[in-house]
Amino acid sequence: MRFPPAWLDELRARADIVQVVGQYVQLKKNGRKHWGLCPFHGEKTASFSVDGESQLYYCFGCKAGGSVIQFVMDYERLDFQDAVKHLADQLHMPLPQMETDPDYQRRRTQRERLLACNKEAARYFHQTLFTPAGQTALDYLKKRGLTDNVIRKFGLGVAPNGWDNLTRYLQEKGYTEEELRLVGLTVIKEATPETEDSPARPRRAFDMFRNRAIFPIIDQYGNVLAFGGRALGDVQPKYLNTSDTPVFNKRLGVYAANLLRKERHLQRVVLVEGYMDVVALTQFGVPGVCATLGTALTQEQAKLLKRFAPAVYLSYDGDSAGQNAILRGLDILEAEDITARVLDFPDGLDPDEFIRRDGKDAFDMLPALTPAAYRMRRLRASHDLSTQEGRTEYARACAAILSKLDPLERENHLQELMVQTGFARDVLQQQIGLNIPAAQSVAQPQVVPTRLPPRRPASAPQEAREEELLITLMSTGRITFDLASAEDFSDPLMADLYQALPEGASPASLVEMQPDEVIRARVSRILLTEPAEDRDQLIQMAHECLNRNRNRRLTQELQDIMRKVTNLQGVEKAAALERAKQISLELKKVQPAR
Predict the structure, then answer these.
(1) Residue 263 above 60 pLDDT?
(2) Fold of 5-98
(3) Class assignment of domain 461-589?
(4) DSSP code for 507
(5) How far apart are CA 481 and CA 477, in angstroms?
(6) How far is CA 533 from the centre of its chain?
(7) Mean pLDDT over residues 490-504, rounded?
(8) CA 89 to chain centre
(9) Helix, strand, coil abundance in the chain, percent, nearest 5
(10) Average pLDDT of 258-274?
């Protein structure tokens, strides 16, 4: 959805950037700005500045910068729309399409109550774990090797034996039976009339989770959305999960998203299948671990994971179901342009079993297979390579995979395929679809042209700095814009800012409209630079910048004319000399101060 500019302006005005950033970074005021340690790169000396007046932030170390919306996007790993919604929710601002929706406030209030109900239930489950009623569950968790620290870190708990312990507890806290049903904590069995074959049964309400170890499902914002329960006896199903509710959709989130969000500078996310895999790997010190919620990996989950790290390592169980889920997961990740790898566990072990047996060092040394390598391994297991027919079909299937790879990665697999199948290189290359002469025994790597970044403005470095300083001075609002004109800016970006500032655009909105993070950071730095406080001094600085830039441009123009004038004749030569005369007069007016 597109948010109305006026509504976004109100959001920025109400979302004080100092307060918002202060929730994540310890800030200390120094002069007009607040300073702290940058949350986007490791540093020991504060170079991260927040300006409450312009509503911008900028790090002089890593060059990150932007508005309050950009900060939420970067820190919470959200896209623009979700960051706006997150801020609006914190500020209790209805979204634009909700302002005329009479049912919006009811749904909002319901959501808040259901989330609070889940939080109270999680507290009940966790506290019960450390009572006599939770001893069986605590023994089970300890037997699985969990420490008290990791149990508390994940908020693990227990649903004790009994039909309605939780239901009665939450009703005493003020939650209605209907709310408990909506959030998936209570099951309602309606009354049945008496028949000849059976007596009447009254309406009953009982707990969804009974005699189970409980794993709270918490989103990246700390909201308890749902629960997973592991049976402590022989009850089926072994794992019972909350169904979709008004606050929970299993396709959209991952288990341990709240912990994932707190880990900065992750290079990969380790995606596993089960709750215990996440808990065990985390306890052993593996960073960035999470799990899908009882479903195969979805497109929505892949997009969420992309916010936390550039790569996803699939670490599913060694059984056939887990291996088939890896193939589906690779398709999803590649469709979202996410770097994917598959961790290869030996002996058919799952991640929990492997790390308990072999430890973290062995986990860190596990082979991380590329999607092509994993798919070829699966194909090899399904073909009989002892027969010519099996080798032929295997080579044909692998060729279809290799045809989609870049030349360098394809070369890594081609030699192995030759050994496995006995086919010559040129035969395999032809099957792949490469038109390579037979005499060329080794495929030459193709040179892929690098995409060059957009060209910077043609202005010289010193001139660019002068233009940036002019915009900085004008953005203070203490000097008038008529000191300059659009012709004084050779840098298109500076010219755009010069046109937008007099029209009342806020610094934050100017930053947000920039096309990429490099330009956003540059504009943030320009609009955040600390200018002189004295207005006369500001005006003098602006005049000096203008004079220096005008002097450079006029001098260059004069030199160009004098180089060309000897080749001109008649009217053209006279016009050029007249222009040279005008430039000489103008240069006398814009001589830079000595």
Answers:
(1) yes
(2) DNA Primase; Chain A (3.90.580)
(3) mainly alpha
(4) H
(5) 9
(6) 39
(7) 80
(8) 19
(9) 50, 10, 35
(10) 90
The answer regarding whether domain 257-367 maps to CATH 3.40.190.290 reads no
| SS3 assignment, position 498 | helix
- pLDDT above 80 (res 148): yes
Q: At 562, which amino acid appears?
A: M
DSSP 118-167: HHHHHHHHHHHHTSGGGHHHHHHHHHTT--HHHHHHTT-EEE-SSSSHHH
Question: Which ranges in 365-424 belong to alpha helices (H)?
Answer: 371-381, 388-402, 407-421
Q: Three-state secondary structure along 74-92?
A: HHHCCCHHHHHHHHHHHCC
Q: Are 523 and 447 within 8 A, CB to CB?
A: no
To which H or E segment does residue 188 belong? strand 186-189
Residue type, 69: I
In tens, the pLDDT along 545-576 reads 677 767 777 787 788 888 887 788 888 878 88
Give the integer Cα–Cα distance in Å for 368 and 257.
Answer: 23
Please provide the DSSP assignment of 316-363 as one string.
--SSHHHHHHHHHHHHHHHHTT-EEEEE--GGG--HHHHHHHHHHHHH
CA 215 vs CA 122, 208, 228: distances in Å: 9, 14, 5
* β-bridge partners, 314: 271, 342
**8-state DSSP, 429:** H
CA gyration radius for the chain? Answer: 33
Residue 504, helix vs strand vs coil = coil
Sign of the CA dihedral with 168 first, then 172, 173, and 174 last: positive
Q: In degrees, to the nearest 5, what angle opens at C-alpha 125 toward C-alphas 122 and 130?
A: 130
Matching residue, tokens 């000396």 = 45
Q: Tell me the C-alpha distance between 118 and 107, whole Å.
A: 16
Strand order from edge to edge, sheet including 239-241: 157-159, 212-218, 224-231, 239-241
**Count of C-beta atoms within a 10 Å radius of residue 201:** 12
CB 223 within 8 A of CB 247: yes
Distance CA 358, CA 354 (A): 6
CATH fit for domain 105-192+201-241, picks 3.90.980.10, 3.40.640.10, 1.10.10.60, 3.40.50.2300: 3.90.980.10
Cα 475 from Cα 498, distance rounded (Å): 9
The rounded distance, in Å, linking the Cα atoms of 252 and 302 is 9
3-state secondary structure of 16: coil
Q: pLDDT digit string (tens) for 34-82?
A: 999 998 887 888 889 999 888 899 998 888 888 999 999 888 878 888 8
